[in-house]
Known about the structure:
There is one protein chain. The chain is mostly helical. The chain has helices at residues 3-14, 17-32, 34-42, 57-81, 94-119, 125-129, 140-151, 156-179, 192-207, 213-230, 273-296, 306-332, 343-352, 357-367, 371-383, 386-397; strands at 49-50, 53-54. The protein has one domain (61-183, 234-397): Na+/H+ antiporter like fold. Helix 2 packs across helix 3 and helix 7 (140-151) packs antiparallel against helix 8. The longest helix has 27 residues, at 306-332.
Amino acid sequence: MSHGSKGILSTIQEYSLPLIAGVFVALGVANAAPEAYHHLLEYQLLPWQLLGHDINLHFLVNDVFMVFFFGIAAKEITDAVLPGGSLNPPSKAVNPLLGTLGGVLGPVGVFFLLVHLFYDGADNYAAVANGWGVPTATDIALAWLAARLVFGARHPAVNFLLLLAVADDAIGLGIIAVAYPDPAHPVAPIWLLCTLAGMLVSFGLRKAKLQSWPLYIVLGGGLAWLGLIQAHLHPALALVFIVPFLPGERPQMGLIAEGEDVPGADPAHGDTPLERFEHRLKLPVDLGLFAFAFANAGVEFSNLGALTWVILISLLVGKTVGIFLCSWVGCKLGFPLPTGMDMKTLGLAGLVAGLGLTVALFVSAQAYTDPLLQGEAKMGALFSGVVFGLALLAGKLLRIKKIEH
């Protein structure tokens, strides 16, 4: 590949241009030809089902492709908790997890307050209140991009936000399973033993000092994915349970790592299964985010309503305030922010987490059956994209010093 081509690809990856393009293309097609858009997403590509799921674009993107996106995110978090990382020692991972709690409770609290103000006494009060799970969502792909642009790729706030967003999405997927269950497919937690088996297999591969990263992904990841989808939970998080087992050049934490030397690896060049996993998949995943955005951001512009602003304010204010307060309390309890973060960067990270967009759109479809309420909620989720611009502006006004290396 020529130097010029590498430069173009680097720019495309750095600014997540496929993701941004996918959002705009989805919005354009969904509003110009809504029937064609939905037909394209749901068109059955193969004449059979996989574990009861139609094999269409929506399934391949959300249930298969996003497994690898979350896997790359898990690799970044794994790096951060290794010695020398921004979340090491492990006590530094407590603060972003407390922030996650605030990132759920804050939006829910603001949501119920606003629903009471706008809908108290209304006939549809209960139906509107059922959407409390919508503003708990964070669009990890867009939030990760915004964080890198605001803070720089190597700022500790990026890994702080990444861990928070992954945990936040895990809680969000749990909320969908519990609060908005599919009567035809009730949650079957016994299948999570299969996910546990995937973790044990990966642990065994590591103890055997096997260096082929595809073995971990296919064997351990395959079992984890099967367990989640058969439990009727979203399988996108499958590799989050597996990637931390991949041997890295530094000792890892807990059962996942024993600090053993990695035969055949060159620590100075990061030539380890953990690094090779990211190196081989990062470009395909970054380019594939176009498909993710296209499959999830296609919302039809509908009439605005009070619920639109309830969702938007819950995301913007609830996320920012909730994350800031819970992480601040964590600091007071002796769980510090990652080195290099302060209250200013914490508040800005909380704002970035308010990017609900595609994930909030997905939850809106589960929470509301009334087309009018669903349309208003989806517009609120769509409008949360304004956080992207607000975060960039705030970064300039607060004179955030970027850390790129």
